[in-house]
Design goal:
Strand content: 5-15%
Number of strands: 4
Shape: elongated
Structural class: alpha+beta
Helix content: 40-55%
Distance between the termini: 74 Å
Order of helices and strands: HHHHHEHEEHE
Largest sheet: 4 strands, antiparallel
Strand order of the largest sheet: 2-3-1-4
């Protein structure tokens, strides 16, 4: 194999590495990207579609780091003498997708994707009470155990869903504990309606307790 052919194959391999890095970075956070996309599209039932990917997230993060790290190593490693001589014979200017600038953009994009679960909550509107004046005897607070939550975006999605119910007062959710607590006016909404609102997001209420 000639030096030119070797360089050409190296460039193709570099493109493949960059593509793999982008794919693994997106896949690593897909479980948290989906709820935001579902909110924007008005299709809340799809929010938990990729929650099954969460256990594989550390593995995919590792793949992203290794792949992009290797791509940078290939880009920055010193060239051999025969490669330098060959480069002098080639008049064609390297494409943008073969440049360090493009690899830098891909690396920054991957970093934003990997960090998405930590800032996904900013895409959700703030939940506000809509109960108006509520008699203390009508205030109901219920705790729920919920399966499928994987990040702060999941928490916000659930809070957003129950905030649409009549008589909503307050909601808190914690994906680490797979739990949520909802306070509402029981004269305007029922526990069954709260459960239905949560289940419609794609997450599932496994049990609930009245506080």
């Amino acid at each position: 194999m000639s030096t030119k052919e070797s360089i050409s194959e190296g460039k193709q391999a570099s493109k493949g590495l960059i593509g793999a890095g982008i794919f693994s970075a997106i896949a690593a956070s897909l479980c948290c990207i989906t709820p935001v996309l579902a909110l924007i599209a008005g299709s809340s039932g799809a929010a938990a579609s990729f929650s099954w990917l969460e256990p594989a997230r550390p593995f995919m993060i590792g793949i992203t780091v290794l792949v992009l790290g290797f791509a940078w190593w290939q880009k920055l490693k010193p060239k051999k003498v025969d490669q330098i001589d060959c480069d002098c014979e080639v008049d064609e200017k390297p494409s943008f997708m073969q440049s360090k600038k493009f690899l830098g953009i891909v690396t920054v994009f991957a970093a934003f994707m990997l960090a998405f679960p930590y800032y996904s909550h900013v895409f959700y509107p703030e939940t506000t009470a809509n109960a108006g004046i509520v008699e203390s005897s009508n205030i109901q607070e219920t705790s729920f155990q919920i399966t499928g939550m994987t990040c702060t975006g999941c928490e916000e999605h659930i809070k957003h869903a129950v905030a649409q119910l009549p008589g909503f007062i307050e909601a808190n959710a914690n994906y680490e504990n797979s739990s949520a607590a909802v306070k509402f006016d029981k004269s305007k909404s029922t526990i069954e309606e709260v459960i239905a609102a949560i289940n419609e997001t794609g997450y599932t209420v496994s049990e609930h307790t009245n506080n």
